[in-house]
Design a protein that fits this description.
The complex is a heterodimer of chains A (about 160) and B (about 425). Chain A is α/β, with parallel strands linked by helices and about 160 residues long. Helices cover about 30% and strands about 20% of the residues of chain A.
Chain lengths: ~160, ~425
């Protein structure tokens, strides 16, 4: 069971909100890069987020660039999962490839600061603050297997190939 | 039932009867990374202890996003990439070599290929009939090692095109109108497949512009058939042997169809801070602009520069405008010099950048200050993309950009003819 606080964002959070292109020069210095996580959506986010917390977005979360640094700095910030109504394709794949769960569910009922518990196996989000319960869709098997191994590189190291 | 372009290509490359919704493993014909995604790709490749590339001659490292290097951190990243290329024997396009997607179109991709790049605008090669899509560094590192990857076969939306552009209207206006209509997530996980009798009026430069921005509607691919226009382009590039005709089946299944009449389109602009926030250029008359940027994988081709030169011949930039031009490849730069376009643009007040991404993503060569506004021919206007998060980015065609250079405010190009 994952437990943490919700950090709520709106629709259309782009990879430039998550980690702006102007910090590309820090991409080989990840601890420094991670200080700028979500900076253009909430400049104080890096200072407020705690290990285990959740990012809760609206629709089309993570649109834009292919930069894997976007889910990487979110993972480095200690975020245990991203919840959103819909997620852009490349960001979705990148997050799973890093072992960061992305859960598609109706996030309208979750407020900023709500205490959440997520049961990945059951596919359920419990909003402990509001007493609500949400279900999220299952991932394709190949993505579940990648998530289970902690990411794509460990998955390929284990199996030597993709297995469908 | 027949197959869409996406289903045809993924069937061929996976050896399965690939249908929308299926998950397949497909052979990859070309894989690449660039200088902002390449270092992590290389580190993931090393983390996997992969050691050898599956196909060194189908693996490319491009230097375009910040090249030549503007600071020591990126210089170190460049050094890592050159060392990787030396050790693995992959192809390398070093500084000044041009924008990855333009070089893929000019020299590397062909109809029916599967192309994977660590850059979201990899979709550009769909203009030639390749199934081309962007992925992150881990995915591309694994493609480097195995020469294949998994795909969910996308549903396709058919975009049927008729008519031809009126003067002053360009492919950029078409794709901005389309994204404005369906939204920035209107095609998420899907392919946009273009067809219809109007395609004969869309040159490869137009098709590359349109395919390039498919991802701004969330699409996995933007696909054009390979036809006589494609064959003429490949012949011009001395790659006639790379041509094969490619078309969707007449009874292919589409999720939906959108009809676009080219003749009815007008110059269109995306306003800050999302690409689907569109308006007609004439509706934005009076919007003051500080910098105009013509270039990128979207609109840095010879036809784009020719359009700008035609409008700016004998004219001068507005005194407030900083006017930046970056041809997308050395071939385009040389052709633009031979045709006199570069002279015309410099006389009008342009600063010419080396072939590369230039000001597009806020790393160098035209970073915006707080409160400034830029009219750019690029593909993204997200908050903070070109520098300050307090700057404003408008996206338009090269014709709209050139007209804006003259007046200093967003201008419908038909007002300056």
């Amino acid at each position: 069971m994952l437990k943490g606080k919700a950090f709520k964002f709106g629709d259309g959070i782009s990879t430039d909100h998550i980690i702006p292109g102007r910090y590309a020069y820090l991409r080989s210095n990840l601890p420094e890069l991670a200080k700028h996580v979500m900076e253009d959506a909430d400049p104080d986010f890096a200072g407020k987020v705690n290990k285990g917390d959740f990012i809760v977005g609206g629709s089309n979360f993570g649109l834009g660039s292919s930069r894997e640094h976007a889910p990487l700095v979110i993972k480095m910030a200690g975020v245990s999962a991203i919840l959103a109504k819909s997620v852009a394709r490349i960001f979705f794949r990148n997050a799973i490839n890093l072992g960061l769960p992305v859960l598609i569910c109706d996030t309208d009922g979750i407020d900023d600061g709500d205490k959440l518990e997520v049961d990945l196996a059951k596919g359920t989000v419990y909003d402990k603050t509001r007493g609500g319960k949400l279900t999220f869709g299952r991932l394709p098997k190949v993505m579940l297997d990648i998530l289970d191994r902690g990411g794509l590189v460990p998955y390929i190291q284990k199996y030597g190939d993709f297995k469908l | 039932m027949g197959k869409t372009l996406a289903e045809k290509i993924l069937s061929l490359k996976s050896g399965c009867d690939a249908r929308a919704g299926d998950i397949v493993i497909a052979q990859v014909d070309l894989a690449f990374a660039q200088d902002t995604t390449g270092p992590l790709t290389i580190r993931q490749f090393q983390a996997g202890n992969f050691e050898r590339l599956a196909n060194p001659k189908k693996t490319v490292i491009f230097f375009d996003h910040a090249a030549p290097s503007p600071n020591r951190e990126l210089a170190n990243d460049h050094r890592l990439m050159r060392q990787f290329a030396r050790e693995t024997g992959c192809l390398i396009s070093d500084v000044g070599g041009g924008v990855c997607h333009q070089l893929v179109a000019e020299s590397l991709a062909k109809p029916g290929d599967v192309v994977v790049g660590a850059d979201s605008h990899t979709v550009t090669a769909g203009g030639l009939g390749a199934f081309a899509t962007g992925m992150g560094s881990s995915d591309v590192a694994v493609v480097f090692a195995l020469g294949k990857t998994w795909f969910r076969v996308p549903e396709s939306i058919k975009i049927s095109v008729t008519g031809e552009f009126k003067r002053g209207v360009m492919a950029k206006d078409l794709v901005l109108q389309l994204i404005g209509a369906i939204g920035a997530d209107g095609a998420t996980y899907k392919a946009l497949e273009f067809g219809g009798e109007g395609l004969r009026n869309l040159k490869i430069s137009d098709r590359l512009t349109i395919a390039n921005m498919a991802v701004e509607a969330g699409a996995k691919a933007g696909l054009f058939p390979a036809d006589r226009v494609t064959r003429a382009y490949l012949n011009h590039q001395k790659r006639g042997e790379d041509y094969q005709a490619l078309a969707a089946d007449n009874d292919a299944g589409y999720e939906s169809q959108i009809n676009i009449n080219l003749t009815a389109l007008e110059p269109t602009v995306a306003k800050p801070h999302q690409v689907d926030n569109t308006a007609l250029a004439r509706e934005l008359k009076g919007t003051k602009i500080d910098q105009v940027f013509i270039g990128t994988c979207t609109n840095g081709r010879l036809e784009d520069i020719a359009t700008a030169a035609e409008i700016l011949k004998g004219k001068k930039r507005h005194p407030r405008i900083r006017f930046i031009v970056a041809p997308a490849s050395p071939q385009i730069m040389l052709d633009a010099i031979s045709a006199g376009y570069i002279r015309t643009l410099v006389e009008a007040g342009a600063v010419i950048m080396p072939p590369g991404c230039a000001a597009c993503l806020g790393l160098h060569q035209g970073v915006l200050a707080s409160g400034e506004a830029c009219l750019s021919t690029a593909n993204r206007n997200f908050k903070g993309r070109m520098g300050s998060p307090e700057a404003f980015i408008y996206l338009g065609s090269p014709a709209t950009a050139a007209a804006t250079v003259i007046t200093g405010e967003i201008t419908d190009p038909r007002d300056v003819f």
